[in-house]
Write a structure and sequence with these properties.
Helix content is 44%, strand content 28%. It is α+β, with helices and mostly antiparallel strands and 145 residues long. It has two domains: 34 residues; 107 residues, Nuclear Transport Factor 2, Chain: A, CATH 3.10.450. The relative contact order is 0.14. Keywords: Signal. This is DUF4019 domain-containing protein. It comes from Roseateles asaccharophilus.
């Protein structure tokens, strides 16, 4: 009988250990590997804004247009689509000789995109702005106001 009890105890300990390990493995991805929102990566968002500014300061309408989503828009009443964005950029580029610098103020997750509040500086002029950026760089700029 004593031998049966020790085997039962060993079996119980083994099953308990496997159950604890399994529970830990199931919980681990949620706790340890939970992906942060792309909106929380301020350095990556600022880099995207810096890339936009670099193309703007170079008056590179094609480079700017490529950063927009296929149905992206520019301006409050902006018509969607890259062709409309390109036309709007051609009208805007070169108006201000001062270099543009965009600084990230706040980023908010809004579903599949980040709403990014910015402060835009150009010479002595400073104004608030707004970018709606897809979570991935490949998704592009959804809208800019």
């Amino acid at each position: 009988m004593k031998r049966f009890t020790s085997q039962a105890g060993l079996f119980y300990a083994l099953v308990s250990s496997v159950a604890i390990v399994a529970a830990g493995v199931l919980a681990l991805p949620d706790a340890a590997f939970a992906a942060t929102s792309p909106c929380e990566d301020r350095a990556a968002l600022q880099q995207r804004l810096d890339d936009f500014d670099a193309s703007w300061n170079a008056s590179d309408a094609w480079g700017l247009t490529a950063q927009f989503a296929m149905q992206g828009s520019l301006g409050a009443a902006g018509e969607p689509g890259r062709q409309a964005v390109y036309r709007e950029l051609i009208e805007r580029l070169g108006r201000a000789p001062a270099k543009r610098q965009t600084r990230l103020v706040r980023a908010t997750d809004v579903g599949g995109a980040c709403m990014v509040d910015v402060q835009v500086s150009s010479g002595e002029r400073r104004e608030a702005g707004l970018f709606l950026l897809a979570h991935t760089r490949e998704g592009g700029i959804v809208a800019m106001r």
